[in-house]
């Protein structure tokens, strides 16, 4: 999936490559989802075709209705019975998010399936919330309800009537606008929710709670006898404490897809979690890797100068994952700058491989050192294809999902950040790895491989000796970061950037001590 079209590809524990929305669900409600929680048109049609080939339809003509819609309903009902919060019993409520816009041809089978599902389940077991935008046009500043009226009319024509409206707006809706929406959309005023712009996204559950959204949903689903009041004291403290933070930390994010920041959404959230834990606001400095390259100094000197000024003005440097050779030279220069100037550095997936290539070229003197991804004929391929990976098919052929990483050195910095366990379980998404034949010579040069997989041959974590914080990880720690449980590598980066990374590893939380 192209990051420019889809944004970030979020990876689940079971290796599912899914939409970034599932990452938001995991972070907000702290659950562990599976690939089956992500329903796509392709999955549905593939399943229907496989059933037809096996003869499950007994030679009948396969149609959108009932065969495709039945498949969608069966998938939803199957997933709704599988717990995702660590409990053994099924969930009380299953949330279904239907993406896109009402009227899109792509979503028509799903809307029809939901219409059938609402009829079969009964009104008391189905609550439909319609999300719509209430824009403000021109200088008058009037909040316009027509887009919502028309989308609700379209939805009702398809057989679905909203029970609640969730209206996005820049400012809180005025009373007359709610009354107008209620009149034309056939929804009670108390069931019209307003999600207006807030200082930070953590306020959204709080404004929904204040508008009694939970009570409206509970009433619709007839759960009054079971539901408890929402416990959001800790969440409220977290949202309000962020608003009161005064100091920030500058983080240079050197990437390939910086024109669409959603491409690095989980990285941004992990930096937020780690910074807030250090009582700081993250100030991410977006740097296109190609702007750091020597060629840009000739073709676009202003962009080149600005990129280097931004990099040198940042407290730490982060290089996230990516694919392809564009911008690689710029990333190598950024890693070299971090190494030589002792600037805290975190390389994730591709970022770890960049640090290996940079060390090989500029410390070992292997000027032609490269990755097999960028140059298949390079004499010194310090990063190579994993043997088990397909070289002809790109889809679903990578090393994906949660894999175990064993620490080779128990006293290494990364181990201390994690609380000194024998191993950690993190999510992966890559098809290249460090060439094990170069590991000994790189370690002699000071780049220590402190983590590996169960075979002992696939390198997972690197650390540079005699450096305040120079860490590369082959996995993606950002996918497991949570608001109150920041990812240890990100915490280490922020603490090192603010010179609070201590040497005491005996803290009860398991993290390296932060000096006062």
From TrEMBL:
It holds the Pfam family CTP_synth_N. Catalyzes the ATP-dependent amination of UTP to CTP with either L-glutamine or ammonia as the source of nitrogen. Residues 260-494 form the Glutamine amidotransferase domain. Residues 1-223 form the CTP synthase N-terminal domain. It catalyses: UTP + L-glutamine + ATP + H2O = CTP + L-glutamate + ADP + phosphate + 2 H(+). CDD domains: CTPS_N, GATase1_CTP_Synthase. NCBIfam families: PRK05380.1 (NF003792), PyrG (TIGR00337). It comes from the Eukaryota. InterPro entries: Class_I_gatase-like, CTP_synthase, CTP_synthase_N, GATASE, GATase1_CTP_Synthase, P-loop_NTPase. GO terms for molecular function: ATP binding; CTP synthase activity; metal ion binding. One of its GO terms (biological process) is 'de novo' CTP biosynthetic process. This is CTP synthase. Keywords: ATP-binding, Glutamine amidotransferase, Ligase, Magnesium, Metal-binding, Nucleotide-binding, Pyrimidine biosynthesis. Its EC number is 6.3.4.2. PANTHER family: CTP SYNTHASE. Pathway: Pyrimidine metabolism; CTP biosynthesis via de novo pathway; CTP from UDP: step 2/2. Belongs to the CTP synthase family. Coiled coil: none annotated.
